[in-house]
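Bumping with the actual sequence this time:
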Amino acid sequence: MPLILTLIGILTLVVLVAFVRLDTFISFVIVSLGIGLASGMDVVAVGKSIQTGIGGTLGELVLIIGFGAMLGRLVAESGAARRITDVLIGWFGIKNIRWGLALAGFVIGIPLFYNAGFIIVVPLIFTIAASSRLPLMSVAVPMLSALSVAHGYLPPHPSPSAVAGQLNANIGQTLIYGIIVAIPAIIIAGPLFGKTLLHIKATPNRDLFNNREVPTQNLPGAGISFFVALLPVLLLTTFGPLKNAMHEPSFLKTIVTLLAEPYIGMLVSVLTAMYALGIRQGLTVKAITKDMEEAVKAVAPILLVIAGAGALKQVFGDSGTSKYIGSLLADAAIPPLLLGWGIAAFIRVCVGSATVAGLTTVGIILPLIQSQAIKPELMVLAIGSGSLMFSHINDGGFWLFKEYFNLTIGQTIRTWSLMETIVSIVGLAGVLLLNLVV
């Protein structure tokens, strides 16, 4: 019966989100309530479970995602993202421009959430394609594939951060493994796949380009632009291992332990960006704060989706559903990482949202992590890879790509949807290979 209730709950969630078009957070709460009551929990217990799930899921995550949104906004609005792109294109030259764009997309994609990153880089893509006289899609796909990979694989992006939190995975280690897995995914889905799209004709909709223009002479320097964009990566991957290597209590260890906390690392990155990309560029603290407020407003709906998924996960646990499913999955012949990827991929194709797919999968797969010796960091990446599978007409990213480049639905499927599928499958292969050596 718990398995049937779970399937009914997921199908109901798919119907409410994809077909009824009901708000995703409300859909999660309705499904959580329905599964709890149908499992025999009383109304008070279900309500308590939903509240606990929301609070426990958001917790530190509000800080990580909130600070991440602020950092991305400052990198974008200051012109640092444009400076990074210009520098990398200068390094690689026209002949290898696709590789430069892929690297630029990855560097920009670490601090920037996908939608914001997309809107920032599309005008750059159009300008570069026009000046290099290369087919637009062959230039766009390398950069956008890198943005997509960062969004699906790497903290501090919402889904991987939330999944890592639910699985008690180490954020810094997840980031290191994620970068390793991301490299082949970006290479294959970006420059190599992009080279096959020379025949696709596209003319971007210039009316949609409305982000703030920063004069070239006012752009921040290349060094500070790269430093600020990559600072979260440097902090998360440096201080975590350093903390574990220091055994004797000391003032220095206290500082290192503090900086090893992901939310502190993000706070330090935001404060650095405020000064380096804001105050030093002549902006007032009031103007900088206004930009950061807008960033928080933009990320609020994502936090609600994460909260709703946390409620569903808690109801799964408190009703005994997770324990029952865990006992079934423990005996399954399918490797756990492949199973996590497959569940996420299935939900992604049905619902369209990578965030919903990733977070819904956690509630189902969590008991398996607890019963088997699987590195949670690799499960985060397996689920993240699955959550990017075959974006199509029920995904906002599909329409964003289609409308900005003025493509037909068929062309969008042959470019965007296929690119996302490659990212997902290569990501899974990378995770399985990494599992053999770590």
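The tokens above came from a reply further down the thread. Residues 57-154+170-201+217-303 form one domain.
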